[in-house]
Automatic annotation (TrEMBL), chains A, B:
Organism: Alligator sinensis (Chinese alligator)
Pathway named in the protein's UniProt entry: Energy metabolism; sulfur metabolism; Sulfur metabolism
One record GO biological process: sulfur compound metabolic process
Transmembrane helix recorded as keyword: no
Catalytic activity field: sulfite + O2 + H2O = sulfate + H2O2
Major localization class: mitochondrion
Residues annotated as transmembrane: none
GO-annotated cellular components: mitochondrial intermembrane space
PANTHER family linked to this entry: SULFITE OXIDASE, MITOCHONDRIAL (PTHR19372:SF7), SULFITE REDUCTASE (PTHR19372)
Protein name: Sulfite oxidase, mitochondrial
Keyword Phosphoprotein appears in the UniProt entry: yes
Role description: Catalyzes the oxidation of sulfite to sulfate, the terminal reaction in the oxidative degradation of sulfur-containing amino acids.
Length: 577, 577
């Protein structure tokens, strides 16, 4: 039994998770932390769930599958290779093995255990409160294992109070018998059977939002805005979609892909209507690896200078994916538009996500950019080789490489060309940068241009702030990116607060000059000067136009807390020798 | 007698200056400070020059001219209006009036005066040494006038030890009878008649270099590299060509425009040969206002952190002109090339300037940029409406808007397309940026990309460092610019070293988004906090991609001292109330 996950919209209630070719389905809850844990649990009988206890897996798909989904699998395998993510596939393999494991008696733990709710488990998130996790329906107290965890205490603590499965999905190494044996030693209870189903919240416009990965740090639940821990973000050149930062302005719309229709208003009042199938059949498919970043990424550093209005993003409102779809310019040409290098018009996008008044999310980009053969603007229906997840715009979104996330309109419904920028609030009265002296009494949104291309930035993803690093030698990791296709050409790292600098090693996809849409991950291993007890680790990047990051946050402070791209500092303690 | 200046090449010796339709010519010297003064002096008889004493002039060309140069004059008038430079035209008018003045007895000062050499005059450049200037062949001691100068002491001191004419050419207000009457009161001598001719330096490869404006601060005489004082630079949106920074790598070549031939190597070995007339007749003329900046601009700030190798540029290795010529893409298309947005080839340029081994200056730009309808790359034969001056590439140069000066190859001789960047030293082994930790023992030029687009920068042109400003209110002026067509969208100015910021007013030509090739001049008038005795004035600019300048120079220090674009500081004293 193959285990491919897909989302299917329910007309009447919460989202359904469908397990591969199996008919097993399960109603899931929509809170961020609890829902994911349920995804791996096939419903084999009404009201009772079989514990999901993984067995040994090699983490790859078998070529001998006889289901009808082999082409999907081949694609997934290719994408997995591209991702460097054996783990993502391993998660799939792991699910598949689960079904076989159900009849495997040696994996079943017997005996009377106390029953807990997820909420009760969730209260155990630190060594002081004891650290509990769940796996299947079993509950474990792993406090005494924290310092024994080969991946480090900080990584295992990401799962504290919640389910292990989403993390094991990312780290395939856990899918081994001895790991499960080890875990069994820490079992303290089981989840209450009622925990495995959840009622729908009928009146909540966000009730239909999709499940999310519990590793995400949630900045706002409704609308959902969340980012992964820096340590996880920095591990993948292509961010696994479940970890890709989520930046929603409104509830995630339910879109039936079969009924989906993109409206493109052409010149002279003619409107082109394109189904998803039209888009996929009539236009050639293209793929682009592009990093998206929210204008508010790293806002928390700015709000430490002076309060700002906005979601308190850390360093991870930035992620990278390989997007697949059709060129926007091909669609616009089909609608009757020709390239006009001197045009000062705009291409406006409207999403299918709406507020209670029916106002949709919207944004625009310059017409010349939309039509440029070098700007690579996509109407994307794939992310890392699979259909767009709902949180990322299923079934179709705009991907404007090198341009602030806010213009990459998700759940795309309508495109038109205008002499003016999009009338949307988010184009005209938000996502603009101001001088540090401008406050809410003096701000005039007409005086600043909309943020489109973003400035050069970088951040340290590992070690995390406050960590203790070994003496002798330290390894620092991070990301670096710049807007407008201006690839990062160098990352300087300092261990002494910016007094001396060393050049980091960079890795990333080779992209043509001027079209470097993806970030670089970087790494520096350097000796820790003997006798040092603390390090103020700093990074700064240089892009292809030799623009650099500003030294400090204060002078770029702005009332909305956008464009926070100063040097990134991480202060750590050096362990005594 | 009309007075249009033109340069005519001498086959055998130094440069000749030709005065309008008149046959009067004069051999001139080639040192930076002394040559300009001679330009206005017609040689009416061998070995003897008539003093050039201006009379009242209205500073405009007469429409009743009967010479064959009226179309040139119309163009010059139009350009003058464009420049906001009555002064430039006034200088011409002034020259014209000179001839009439020769017979005007009331302008002649009689009496026996001591004779001086220019060198002797040049020793009088400060109040301590007394401040002398020349006008025509007369010598004046203006020390006692310094504080009476309506334009301020600092401006008149620019002419100390040299000739007034080049400055009066820029400031037409001086061309009035009462100014000359006033000057006459300070007369202390006359120039020795031998000073008005100069021998040719036969063996000097730089002997044929053109005359330059004495206001320029000379960083290197051979090759000639010089910049205007910041105060003068900041006064003109279009920099008068005589003040436009000069950045020569080699002697200025003598090019006969009638014999000039541009070689364009097309695909398949076909070479296009284009005379200047071919270029002007076969391709449409286009004009672009673009700022050029040397990669080494503001290097002196970097060398104050740690020594660097390179010319010690102040803040003025940046200037703006309106360039006229033909699109490079039109010429390349004529040579057989088609647009290829995905091409990773390069268009290589070679100048006619050569070193003693015959190696020419060279550089390259990406092919896609050369062919882009939005990149506006020009082969320019005009600068501010007149033929290119010799120092700026006569008769033809490349103008690559938004790209470092070094790629704007002057005296263009040859163009070809290559899979590789230009093999030139200046493309491959210079004009690259490195980390502050890289020194001459560790530098590897293959590890850094060639500087092409430049980062955002700004500087304060007025007040100058060390000035005393009035209490009450201060006016700060400067320029701001960014590469890649990313126009400056805001300039922040601080009077307190960067603690608080105010937004400056900007002025400049309206250019389309993404094609903002010209700088912005900016100004801020702000109260000086009572009791303040010193100001640390700072400016920083933000460009259309919201890139900003780094706070400090140290962390962007590099061994070649390029890309010095940190905040600019000017410290001044506040006068007691």
């Amino acid at each position: 039994m193959g285990g491919a996950y897909g989302l299917r919209r329910s007309e009447t209630g919460p989202c359904l998770l469908q397990l591969g070719g199996a008919a097993a389905m399960l109603l899931i809850r929509t809170t961020a932390r609890s829902c994911w844990a349920l995804q791996g649990v096939p419903r084999v009988a009404a009201g009772a769930c079989t514990p999901w206890i993984p067995t040994h897996t090699h983490g790859t798909w078998s070529g001998s599958s006889h289901s009808g989904r082999s082409s999907w699998r081949r694609r997934a395998t290719a994408v997995g290779a591209l991702l460097g993510l054996g783990s993502a596939l391993a998660y799939g393999g792991h699910c598949r093995q689960t079904a076989q494991a159900e009849s495997s008696p040696q994996d079943t733990v017997l005996g009377p255990f106390p029953l807990y709710t997820r909420e009760e488990v969730g209260r155990h998130r630190s060594p002081e409160q004891r650290v509990w996790v769940t796996h299947g329906r079993e509950v474990f107290d792993i406090t005494d294992f924290l310092d024994l965890h080969p991946g480090g205490r900080s990584k295992i603590l990401l799962a504290a109070g919640g389910a292990l499965e989403p993390f094991w999905a990312l780290y395939a190494v856990h899918n081994q018998a001895h790991v499960r044996d080890l875990l069994r030693e820490y079992k303290v209870g089981e989840l209450h059977p009622e925990e495995l189903t959840a009622p729908a919240a009928a009146d909540d416009p966000y009730a239909g939002d999709p499940p999310r990965h519990p590793a995400l740090h949630v900045n706002s639940l409704k609308p959902f805005n969340a980012e992964p821990p820096g340590e996880l973000l920095g591990e993948h050149f292509l961010t696994p979609p479940e970890l890709f930062f989520k930046r929603n302005h409104l509830p995630v719309p339910h879109v039936d892909p079969d009924a989906y229709c993109l409206k493109v208003e052409g010149p002279g009042g003619r409107t082109l209507s394109l189904s998803l199938q039209d888009l996929q059949r009539r236009f050639p498919k293209h793929e682009v690896t592009a990093t998206l970043q929210c204008a508010g990424n790293r806002r928390s550093e700015m709000s430490r200078v002076r309060p700002v209005r906005g979601l308190d993003w850390g360093i991870s409102a930035i992620s990278t994916a390989r997007w697949g779809g059709v060129w926007l310019r091909d669609v616009l040409a089909d609608a009757g538009f020709a390239e006009e290098p001197e045009s000062q018009r705009h291409v406006c996008f409207e999403g299918l996500d709406q507020d209670l008044t029916g106002t949709a999310y919207g944004a625009s980009i310059p017409f010349y950019q939309a039509m440029s053969a070098r700007a690579d603007v996509l109407l994307a229906y794939e992310m890392n080789g699979a259909a767009l997840p709902r949180d990322h715009g299923f079934p179709l979104r705009v991907v404007v490489p090198g341009t602030v996330g806010a213009r990459n309109v998700k759940w795309l419904g309508r495109i038109w060309v205008s002499a003016e920028e999009s009338p949307s609030h988010w184009q005209r009265n938000d996502y603009k940068g101001f001088s540090p002296g401008v406050d809410w009494d003096t701000v005039d949104y007409t005086t600043a241009p909309a943020i489109q291309e973003l400035p050069v930035t970088s951040a340290i993803t590992d070690p995390p702030p406050g960590a203790t690093v070994a003496s002798g030698e330290v390894t620092v990791k991070g990301y670096a990116w710049s807007g407008g296709g201006r690839g990062v050409v160098r990352v300087d790292v300092s261990l002494d607060g910016g007094h001396t600098w060393q050049v980091a090693e960079m890795q990333g996809e080779q992209q043509p000059p001027g079209q470097v849409w993806a970030w670089k991950l970087w790494q520096l291993t350097a000796p820790v000067p003997p006798g040092t007890t603390e390090l103020d680790i700093v990074c700064k990047a240089v892009d292809a136009s030799y623009n650099v990051q500003p030294d400090t946050v204060g002078p770029i402070w702005n009332l909305r807390g956008v464009l926070s791209h100063a040097w990134h500092h991480v202060r750590v303690t050096v362990a005594e020798e």
